[in-house]
Amino acid sequence: MSLSPSVDPRELIAFHLGGQEFCVDIRSVLEIRGWAPATAIPQSPSYVKGVINLRGTVLPIVDLGARLGLGPSEPSARHVIIVARISNKTVGLLVEAVSDILTVSDDRIQPTPDVACDTVRSFVKGVIAQDTGMISLIALDGILPETVAEAA
Question: pTM, whole model, 2 decimals?
Answer without folding.
Answer: 0.85
